[in-house]
Amino acid sequence: MQAQERDPELTRTRLAGWLTPRLPGATGGVDLGPLASPEGLGFSNETHLFDATWGDGDTRTTRRLVLRIAPTVYQVFLEPRFAEQYQIMAALTGADPGLPVPELLGYEPDATLLGAPFFVMAAADGRAPNDNPPYHVGGWLHDVNPADRAAMWWAGIDILARVHRLDPATLDLGFLNSAGRGRTGIDQQLAYYEQMLTWAGAKVFDTPPEPLATARDWLRAHQPDEPDPPVLLWGDARIGNILFDEQFHPTAVLDWEMAELGAPETDFAWFLFLDRHHCEGCDAPRLAGFPTRAETVARYEQLLGRPVRHLDYYEVFAAYRFAVIMLRILVTFVELGMMDPTTDMITNNTVSRMLATLLDLPAPGAPPDRETPRTAPAGAPTAAG
Predict the structure, then answer these.
(1) N or C: which end of the chain has fewer CB within 10 A?
(2) For the chain, first and last CA: distance in Å?
(3) CATH number of 140-371
(4) What is the helix (H) or strand (E) element at residue 233, kind and residue range?
(5) In this structure, what DSSP letter does residue 358 have?
(6) Where are the domains of the chain?
């Protein structure tokens, strides 16, 4: 999917001027290298990597930076939350030394400069487990020692617990409370995805398709109590949103556009379900080294300091909201001419089939071995990032 067309030279010139007062010692101006748009970074934001160089003689400095620009051509989620991503990362900076947040260089709300709001942060060394193809299907994780895969998994669980132990009140994250949708937590989140389900499929369906409609009703009927104060939820919590260095230590935690306030089980179930999708949902064996579900639950409970509650419910919720997001993405692909409008993949895909299985519902659409590829279409993410 293509981002907004922009003049690269004009973009670099304006960005260099914007960066000059924000980089120490760059009073003489900043030289920018070409903007590169890496593949596999998702498409909910426009992302560019570039080198910035400034200074004179022996004091000349070069840094690798990341430019993220708010989407203008398409919108994955119900509401634009671009500025909130920056606010969350700014709030997390220094909140926990064990939580690797990229260094932020500034946010620009004025859309006239680059055509949309944007922010710049330092690039972190490392690479993330791939989504397309899912890492259990193919990619660099297949060449990794099983013990290193385990280390990456446990690092992800540690990061998750660190996020959940933070106090949202002391971080001024009250803007994540959508009080108009109900009580903080699952009540607000169910309302959000009910609205998004209707919006995502409005141009294709008169009513929400199955199994999403049944899942929506089941989740409301079985909605659990959440007795503890809400915590910060990462939202898109998975190892695919963590950069790891060559020693498989995390160097950056990325993508906060799905952040909410709620019960930590919401994030934990998403973490489990996304990994399950990347193997079971894609008919691929789970790579050796990744800990079992039982081992993961035990470790997370130890870090959280209490047993997890209603985990099966939250896994259904994870499958449901992933299916709603996938519905939106695939409808957009059809609208932009990237997929055949007669495709049944909009309702018959890896996520919707897993959702149907979790609720013991008939499989949607045609048999998967006849119609649906094992991985997403070219250019499509298998998660929101």
Answers:
(1) N
(2) 14
(3) 3.90.1200.10
(4) strand 231-233
(5) H
(6) 8-122, 140-371
Q: How many Cβ atoms from other residues are within 10 Å of residue 277's Cβ?
A: 21
Q: Can you read off the two tokens belonging to residue 8? A: 């690269």
Q: Is 350 in contact with 277 (CB distance < 8 Å)?
A: yes
Digit-coded pLDDT (tens) for 214-232: 999 999 999 999 999 999 9
> How does pLDDT run across 110-157, given as a tens digit for each residue?
999 999 999 999 999 999 999 989 999 999 999 999 999 999 999 999
Rounded-to-integer distance, Cα 98 and Cα 252, Å = 10
Distances (CA, A) of 197 to 42, 47, 205, 229, 261: 21, 27, 10, 27, 20
30-32 and 260-262 strand pairing: unpaired
- CB of 351 within 8 A of CB of 131? no
State the DSSP H helix or E strand holding residue 105, giving kind and residue range, or none if neither: strand 104-108
Condensed to tens digits (0 to 9), the pLDDT of residues 309-359 reads 999 999 999 999 999 999 999 999 988 888 898 899 999 999 999 999 999
Distance CA 343, CA 329 (A): 14
The three-state secondary structure class of 25 is coil
Residue 26, both tokens: 């760059």
Domain 8-122 and domain 140-371 have a common topology: no
Task: List phi, psi (to 5°) of 178.
Answer: -95, 75
Say what the pTM is.
0.91
Q: Does the structural domain 8-122 have CATH classification 3.30.565.10?
A: no
Residue ranges in 144-292 assigned as alpha helix (H): 146-165, 186-201, 212-221, 264-279
Q: Strands 46-54 and 231-233: what pairing?
A: unpaired
**Identity of the residue numbered 177:** N
Structure tokens at 336: 């932009």
Strand bridging mode 242-244 / 118-122: unpaired
User: Which tokens in the block code for residue 104?
Assistant: 């932020």
Tens of pLDDT along 144-175? 999 999 999 999 999 999 999 999 999 999 99
CA dihedral angle for residue 20, residue 22, residue 27, residue 29, rounded to 10 degrees = -20
